[in-house]
Amino acid sequence: MRFPVLITILFATCLVLPAEAQKDRAFQALAKTIVEEHLRLNPDFATRMGDHRWDDRLPNFSAKGRADLLAWARSKARALRYFMWVAPPGWGRY
Fold this sequence. Notes:
- It is built from 3 helices and no strands.
- The chain is an all-alpha fold.
C-alpha cells in the first residue's frame, strides 16, 4: 500500500520542481534587469554603490525625467506581481 503512494508523491514532485525552477530563473533574470536599469537610470546611486560605468552621466531631474522614472518603476512593479507569494488561508494566525 505504501509503495503506490510513494511513487505518486515522487511523480508529483518531479512535475512541480521544473516549473518552480523555471519561475526562479525568470525571477532572477527580471531582478538582474531591474538592478541594471536602476543603476543606469540613477548614475549617482550607481557611483555610490561602486559601479563606475555611468560616471559620465548626471541624473535627469527634469519633469520628463521624473515621469520616465516613475513609468519605469510602475512597469517593473507590474512585472514583479507575477512572482508575489500568496499566503494560504490561515497563514500567520495565532
